[in-house]
Amino acid sequence: MVNDKESRKIVDIIQDFARKSSLFVLAYGTGCGAIEIPPTMTSRYDAERFGIRGAATPRQADVLLITGYLATKSLKRVIRAYEQMQNPKYIIGFGSCTINGGMYWDSYNTINRLDMYMPVDVYINGCMPRPEAVIAGFAKLQKLIQAGKADGWERYQNNLEFYRKNQKKIIHNWVMPDYNW
Amino acid sequence: MEQELLDLLVEHFQDRIAGSVKSDKRVEIFTSTSAIEDVLMYAKNVLGYIHLVHFSCVDWIEENEFELMYAIFSPKSKITIMSKVRVDRENPVAPNIDYIWRHANTFEREIREMFGIEFTGLIAEKEMILEDWIEMPPMRRDFDTAEYAKKTFFDRPGREDAQDVRETIIKRTGEELPEFSKKYSR
Ligand code: SF4
């Protein structure tokens, strides 16, 4: 088997299969979309069928769900939580507020485009997305993981300067640690 | 009963207050920053208006004034008194009332942050809801949120054909848009 950069080793495939089958989601809701998480997780839609379940702390989680509008104040906390998570980690932008600002596009304290501040792997459209849509978004993420294409965390490390510049533009009092990955 | 209450207040404070009966169980009084503490104290301790329901602020930019509104309620008479005070917009200072109702402290912090009104003698942290805010207080009507959002956050292309809700409603109902709101609406 040729092992240049393009083809993936068999161990990668097995690893990615394991990763996609157990997605631990950080239980942290930022916007009103978080109200769709309980029905997604409980018996009606039961996302645990797909290996999706909640994690209590960032260090145990694989997926960070940004459930809707993100105030500049909570952006700071979200960045902190994201940087504490272990690689590989994924971000799902949930609801139209994360895509273009949604109905809060002209608000003075909610960001408009999440992907300028954090590397988003999957966007779920809707205001707010129903549990079916949420599960479809997760299924999409699983596909990307299996194909080795969910590389948000790598993008974040490689383009840290770009993300930092945008983050510092709205967080004036910067108190985060510096990293040397 | 509302009229009796109003008469009582006017009799006690003479020309320091003016007011009217707005509707059933609702009395509106206008007073000044120097008299508001006395009025609230009197209403609370003598008349039994023991509950501060709400305390908020309105920006009357056309008159270059802020209006502070104190809604107080008596569980006995079930009447709400809306006491209103105007402060100058250039130099907005109002008396602190958190020694009358402790929870007024929270309202005052919010008003200070959102409208920039200073309350003399208020002891509280400067920041409450906002963090690292350096612009003009955001609830003032001359603060252009859309402009601010445009220059601070990143727009995603594709919203250009979005319609103005006001204009759509006006077209449908044939209402007139008031002159002042034309200047401050989008
Ligand atoms: S997209 Fe809609 S439901 Fe989601 S946070 Fe924004 S306003 Fe709320």
Our count of helices of chain B gives: 6
- Global mean pLDDT of chain A: 87
Task: Write out the distinct hetero groups bound to the structure.
Answer: iron/sulfur cluster
The number of strands of chain A is 5
As laid out across the biggest beta sheet of chain B, the strand order is 1-2-5-4-3
Q: Output the helix-strand order of chain A.
A: HEHEEHEHEHHH
The proportion of residues in beta strands of chain A is 5-15%
Radius of gyration of chain B: 20 Å
Determine the CATH superfamily of the largest domain in chain B. Answer: NADH:ubiquinone oxidoreductase Nqo5 subunit
- Tell me the overall shape of chain A: globular
Helix count from the secondary structure assignment of chain A: 7
Write the layout of secondary structure elements.
The complex is a heterodimer of chains A (about 180) and B (about 190).
Chain A: H1 10-21, E1 23-26, H2 37-41, E2 52-55, E3 63-67, H3 72-84, E4 90-94, H4 96-100, E5 122-124, H5 131-146, H6 152-158, H7 160-170
Parallel strand pairs in A: 1-2, 3-4, 4-5
Chain B: H1 2-13, E1 18-23, E2 26-31, H2 36-45, E3 51-60, E4 65-73, E5 80-88, E6 93-95, H3 104-115, E7 118-120, H4 145-152, H5 165-173, H6 179-184
Parallel strand pairs in B: 2-5, 6-7
Antiparallel strand pairs in B: 1-2, 3-4, 4-5
The complex binds iron/sulfur cluster (SF4).
Give the gist of this structure.
Chain A has 7 helices and 5 strands, in the order αβαββαβαβααα. Chain A has 181 residues and is an alpha/beta fold.
Overview of the structural elements:
Helices cover 38% and strands 12% of the residues of chain A. Chain A is α/β, with parallel strands linked by helices and 181 residues long. By secondary structure, chain B is of the alpha/beta class. In chain B, the strands form two sheets. Chain B has a five-stranded mixed sheet with strand order 1-2-5-4-3, with helices on one face. In chain B, strands 6-7 form a two-stranded parallel ribbon. Chain B starts with a helix and ends with a helix. The model of chain B has no long low-confidence stretch (mean pLDDT 88). Residues 31-33, 68-69, 95-97, 102-103, 127-128 of chain A line the site of iron/sulfur cluster. The site of iron/sulfur cluster has 12 residues of chain A, from helix 4.
